[in-house]
Design brief:
- It comes from Acanthopleuribacter pedis.
- InterPro entries: Aminotrans_IV, Aminotransferase-like, BCAT-like_C, BCAT-like_N, Class-IV_PLP-Dep_Aminotrnsfr.
- GO terms for molecular function: branched-chain-amino-acid transaminase activity.
- It is an enzyme of class 2 (transferase).
- Belongs to the class-IV pyridoxal-phosphate-dependent aminotransferase family.
- The protein contains seven helices and 14 strands.
- With 262 residues, the chain is α+β, with helices and mostly antiparallel strands.
- It has two domains: 93 residues, Aminotransferase class 4, branched-chain amino acid transferase, N-terminal domain (D-amino Acid Aminotransferase, Chain A, domain 1); 138 residues, D-amino Acid Aminotransferase, Chain A, domain 2, CATH 3.20.10.
- Strands 5, 6, 7, 8, 9, 10, 11, 12 and 13 form a nine-stranded mixed sheet that branches. A five-stranded antiparallel sheet has the order 4-3-1-2-14.
- Strand 1 and strand 2 form a beta hairpin.
- The longest helix has 14 residues.
- The radius of gyration is 19 Å and the shape is globular.
């Protein structure tokens, strides 16, 4: 059994493709390469990354695409020699019609300042449990808090919070959370700023938004019984710039067309 199956020694990126155009493709590629260097995986170059997507993803239609780097080999493998393998999974994208989300406060407190949580790896058992327990309780996702009471993220999304003064903030990477591609774009656009948030501060915020590479920004209507202003969240989302999209040819050439959005 290879290390990717036994220990989750893998990395993945989940992308949206619409009629051959990909949202935030460069950000996904850069994040994958940065993470691969930290976990002894060999990242693809631009040509190999684009080629793998071309071969797996239909040129027409809307698709959810998962590009994965897998660690083959290890002491339980038939061939113990280490080798990085890539694989692409594709499924149709049906969209997300939910107008808002409800979050379940996870009882499991994550360790503080864990840098491994900044990697989108296959070793995500804690996140899987948080998400499943939230669904079992009738919620859309779970809210994750660390052992010192700082809010980190949701099980499948980063979080943005609206202060009373009208500014938006998001928990800092230093707390140990995923550097999401939508989150990074919003930081680059100065739409949010990083700030630590304690769980007891939650009632002070007017609105909350989740950000996810597949579903995009979504208003949060409640965390447990705490309600939030979904109209304020929706208005903020509506005012955000449309994300740029890129064809594989543009990506491979290192160019893009900023006038074209999906």
């Amino acid at each position: 059994m290879d290390d990717y199956a036994l220990y989750g020694h893998s990395l993945f990126e989940t992308l949206i493709a619409r009629d051959g155009r990909y949202r935030d493709l460069d950000r996904h590629f850069q994040r994958l390469g940065t993470a691969a260097a930290q976990v002894l995986l060999q990242p693809p170059d631009r040509a190999a990354f684009a080629r793998a997507l071309r071969e797996a993803v239909p040129a027409e239609g809307a698709w959810v695409v998962r590009f994965t780097l897998l660690q083959q080999g290890g002491r339980w493998a038939a061939n113990p020699a280490f080798k990085t393998k890539s694989h692409v999974w594709v499924k149709p994208y049906a969209g997300d019609s939910r107008p808002s989300l409800a979050l379940h406060l996870s009882e499991h407190r994550f360790p503080c300042n864990d840098p491994w949580r900044q990697l989108k790896s296959g070793a995500r058992l804690g996140y899987q449990i948080v998400g499943r327990l939230a669904k079992q309780a009738g919620y859309d996702d779970g809210l994750i808090v660390d052992q010192k009471g700082f809010i980190l993220e949701a099980g499948t999304a980063n979080l943005c919070f609206l202060r009373a003064d009208g500014s938006w903030i998001t928990p800092p990477l230093a707390s140990g959370l995923l550097p999401g591609t939508v989150r990074q774009r919003l930081l680059e656009q100065s739409k949010v700023a990083e700030a630590a948030i304690k769980l007891e501060e939650l009632p002070r915020f007017r609105a909350v938004v989740t950000t996810n590479a597949v579903s995009g920004p979504k208003p949060v209507r409640a965390v447990m019984t705490q309600r939030f202003n979904t109209e304020a969240a929706a208005n903020w989302i509506a005012g955000l710039p449309e994300p740029e999209t890129t064809t594989l040819d543009q990506f491979e050439a290192g160019t893009h067309n900023p006038a074209h959005t999906d």
